[in-house]
Automatic annotation (TrEMBL):
Gene3D superfamilies: FAD/NAD(P)-binding domain (3.50.50.60). This is Flavin-dependent monooxygenase. It comes from Streptomyces auratus AGR0001. GO terms for cellular component: cytoplasm. Residues 9-227, 297-353 form the FAD-binding domain. Its cofactor is FAD. An FAD-requiring monooxygenase active on some tetracycline antibiotic derivatives, which leads to their inactivation. Hydroxylates carbon 11a of tetracycline and some analogs. The lineage of its organism: Bacteria, Bacillati, Actinomycetota, Actinomycetes, Kitasatosporales. Consists of an N-terminal FAD-binding domain with a Rossman fold and a C-terminal substrate-binding domain. GO terms for biological process: response to antibiotic. Monomer. GO terms for molecular function: FAD binding; monooxygenase activity.
């Protein structure tokens, strides 16, 4: 069921992994369409800063012919970590593994734009919300959209994130709550409006952690400082706390009580932020997450291996995309290509998921039962 221009490859989701796949295919003259439920490129804020690792994310950017442009946009100084004692705010050694000394930071939105601008016009079809996929036989699939329309494809790639609508076609797995919640807030124009805070954070990321909870502050582009409060709690912690998620004052009071006894320079992150608090429960797929090969359909990125947000997910998604593209270019059939990709990706992601789970437990240790 190939078209005149080769197999019909449908990528569901215009995140970093799906766009990396599309970019490499187009570099080599292959046709590809990306379906994205968002209405336009700027419809939703894309999140915080990413550290792009040499062996994964940068390797993918090199394969996509975008490494030099990434380097020009990135912030090498953003690799800096500062760890403070929660009670005294004095500097401590970094408690984690040795940080990659070549993992410059870039805002996710800027990196996504870099990929989008590299694609041929019309590659991404915006406002196309996929609700599922059904097999047609002989490895072909039909995509179903929320407006009742359909599209047929010879290969469907689920690059649609944590709550993938494509994943059920290959796996019954669904994300489960880790017991850790991140609450996000931030500061606009931090350098000018909060100079003492800016000096305390430094050029990259600030971390203070103790007793199963943590405060993190992360420099982003355009003067923004993103803040995360991390702790172990039931997923409906607001119910037990008696606070409404959109009641900023009540959430603030609850968090200040939680961080009672911490240095006031750190509690400043909770008192003087701009805007409200966003609840971000940390959910993951089972590790390892594997599936029996299904002809004509596969997954990449968070759809395949959702793991704790400790610095690997975006890097692996881009590498997944470029590895799948290279397999499609090298193998004689779609099925051989997908098998080769899954043979490479699945064990790699299983190892990474284990490392990320251990990193999350190190940051926010589980409470004793």
């Amino acid at each position: 069921m190939n078209s005149a221009h080769g197999p019909r490859i449908a990528v569901v989701g215009a995140g970093l992994g799906g766009l990396a796949l599309a970019r490499v295919l187009q570099l080599h003259g292959r046709s590809v369409t990306v379906f994205e439920r968002e209405a336009a490129t700027g419809a939703r804020h894309q999140g915080g800063s990413l550290d792009i690792h040499a062996a994964t994310g940068q390797a993918a950017l090199r394969a996509a012919g975008l490494l030099d442009r990434f380097r020009a946009l990135s912030r090498p100084e953003g690799q800096e970590w500062r760890v403070l004692d929660p009670v005294t705010a004095t500097a401590l050694p970094f408690p984690g593994p040795v940080h990659d000394d070549d993992s410059p930071e870039i805002d996710r939105g800027a990196l996504r734009s870099l990929f989008l601008e590299s694609l041929a016009e019309g590659t991404v079809r915006w406002g196309c919300a996929v609700t599922g996929a059904t097999p047609l036989g002989d490895g072909a699939w039909r995509l179903l959209f929320d407006d009742g329309t359909t599209e047929d494809a010879d290969l469907v790639v689920g690059a649609d994130g944590a709550w993938s609508r494509i994943r059920p076609a290959v796996s019954d797995a669904t994300p489960g709550y880790t017991g850790v919640t991140f609450i996000e807030t931030g500061f606009d124009d931090c350098e000018a409006r909060h100079p003492d805070l800016a000096r305390m954070v430094g050029n990259g990321t600030l971390l203070a952690t103790a007793d199963g909870k943590a405060l993190l502050a992360q420099r982003n582009g355009n003067g923004y400082l993103r803040v995360y409060v991390a702790f172990r709690a039931p997923r409906d912690w607001q119910v037990a706390a008696g606070v409404a998620p959109d009641d900023t004052a009540a959430v603030r009071a609850h968090l200040l009580k939680m961080f009672d006894g911490w240095d006031e320079s750190l509690r400043y992150l909770l008192r003087h932020h701009d805007g409200g608090f966003v609840d971000r429960p940390v959910c993951v797929l089972p590790a390892p997450h594997t599936w029996e090969h299904v002809p004509g359909i596969t997954l990449l990125g968070d759809a395949a291996h959702l793991m704790p947000p400790v610095g690997l997910g975006a890097n692996l998604a881009m590498l997944d995309g470029t590895d799948l593209a290279h397999a499609l270019l090298a193998e004689s059939s779609l099925d051989d290509a997908v098998r080769a990709y899954e043979h490479l990706m699945l064990p790699r992601s299983a190892q990474a998921a284990q490392e990320c789970a251990e990193a999350l437990d190190h940051l926010i240790p589980p409470t004793d039962s």
